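Case study: Ribosome-binding factor A.
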Amino acid sequence: MSYPRVKRLSEEIKKIVSNIIRNELRDPRIAPMTSIVEVDVTRDLRYVNIYISVLGTEKEKEATMEGLIKASGFIRREIGQKIKARYTPEVIFKLDESIERGIHMYNVITKVNEQNSTTSDEDKTDE
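Here is what the predicted structure looks like once written out:
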């Protein structure tokens, strides 16, 4: 069952947090290639799970998550000032590595296709 209010709130929070990360946070730990993949607000509007994707090394990912967790109080306050809701949801950041997995799978598939095409080319020359 879909809840339109929760969807609207999720999209609005995504816009707000994206703007905050890009323009307002001055933490050097947060990598410049940080993006919000998805925002899930619970049905009771008490918690918001924000899935973050960081393009970089494992060390950069850990540092970015640490910086975002430290800034979660500031981010929650900013969300509370910009949305009109009875409760300001508690912000929970989670690292989402689906983009990296997608890039890895693309590279694997490309490599297999290249190997198959060279193998089929060799078979044609043998005939």
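For the exam, be able to explain this: The chain has two domains: 4-96, 98-127.
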